[in-house]
Design a protein that fits this description.
- With 191 residues, the protein is mainly α.
- It has one domain.
- Helices cover 47% and strands 0% of the residues.
- The chain contains 8 helices and no strands.
- The chain starts with a helix and ends in an 11-residue tail after the last helix.
Length: 191
């Protein structure tokens, strides 16, 4: 009886190893094509508002040092970092007019006010997307002390957000999990 259980366990391990080998053999070419496909569907081009992350999150003169969690507050509580409601923007911009390039009112803040007046959410274009078979629970990473810049780059230095050229692949994530001593159980990300 024990011998049969041992053989069954070895068969399960063998299937798991073959599966991992197949996924690894699929490799960087598939990951690269997935990312290329995402660039067609998602990206910073054509954002409805040219939101300057550097002005809001930067630490230089004339920058406000707003923490990521102020606007992306759901990152601490949910899988998604979420986007702020227009009301969050208007909490400041009902008072702060902002200046446009020629000293007049900021056309970008005027766009935000337009969404507010029409009671419409801002239809942002998505910048990051993981494959459909992957879950990236932001709240677990925030609670583990992973800084947003680890995946998203130095956002506080960017004008309009740009996707950093990180190879957001399973290997890249596993390397981070190894360095952080985090779980490498498949069901952590694939559920």
């Amino acid at each position: 009886m024990i011998k049969k259980q041992w053989i069954l366990a070895m068969a399960v391990v063998a299937v798991a190893l073959v599966t991992v080998a197949f996924v690894q053999a699929r490799g960087d070419d598939a990951a690269t094509s997935d990312i290329a496909q995402q660039e067609v569907e998602y990206g910073p081009e054509g954002q409805p508002v040219a939101f300057p992350h550097n002005v809001h999150a930067g630490a230089g003169e004339g920058q406000y040092q707003i923490d990521c969690m102020y606007c992306h507050f759901s990152a601490e509580r949910s899988p998604s970092a979420g986007l702020p409601a227009v009301a969050s923007c208007m909490g400041c911009h009902s008072v702060i007019r902002g200046e446009g390039p020629e000293g007049g009112p900021s056309p970008e803040i005027d766009k935000v006010r337009g969404f507010w007046d029409r009671q419409e959410p801002i239809p942002w274009n998505r910048i990051y997307r993981v494959a459909d078979h992957v879950q990236f629970p932001h709240m677990r990473h925030i609670s583990a002390g992973v800084d947003c810049t680890a995946c998203h780059g130095q956002v506080q230095e960017m004008g309009v957000i740009q996707r950093v050229e990180q190879p957001l692949t399973m290997g890249w994530c596993l390397t981070c999990h190894l360095e952080m001593g985090a779980s490498r159980d498949c069901t952590v990300c694939h559920y």
